[in-house]
């Protein structure tokens, strides 16, 4: 059986990328505002997550929203807020893709930048080619 799919862009992803003390199993390059960063592509994460120092640099408040329920993470339950922040996927070939993503922001998040399912990855078509030497992230 043969499957064929067309994508408008692709970028190399980095496997087992180190971001400070964090190991990003699949890291993709993206832009938030004027900041170009590598983020953990995590289809098991409910939301995108923004570290507090980056949220502050982008001008967002760290004060948790009491109406937002705690977010269950590998670091335990965290209180925070949600913000809509565009994220742009940066291709090596094709056009950049901007997604109006929903982010969880907590002053207590000790982890890396995470691209999660709800409000982000569910809004695009994507595929990973893990062939050694290829390692591409296709999106469109």
Going by CATH, the homologous superfamily would be Acid Proteases
Share of β-strand residues: over 45%
Strand-pairing-aware structural class = mainly beta
Determine the oligomeric state from the structure: single chain
Q: What fold name stands as the CATH topology?
A: Cathepsin D, subunit A, domain 1
Number of domains: 1
Unreliable sequence segments? none
Instruction: Please give the alpha-carbon distance between the first and last residues.
Output: 23 Å
Q: For the CA atoms, what is the radius of gyration?
A: 15 Å
Order of helices and strands: EEEEEHEEEEEEEE
Report on this model:
- The chain is mainly beta and 140 residues long.
- Helices cover 4% and strands 48% of the residues.
- The chain has a single domain (20-139), classed as Beta Barrel (Cathepsin D, subunit A, domain 1).
- The chain is built from one helix and 13 strands; from the N terminus they run E-E-E-E-E-H-E-E-E-E-E-E-E-E.
- Strands 2, 3, 4, 5, 8, 10 and 11 form a seven-stranded mixed sheet that branches. It has a four-stranded antiparallel sheet with strand order 9-1-13-12, with no helix packed on it.
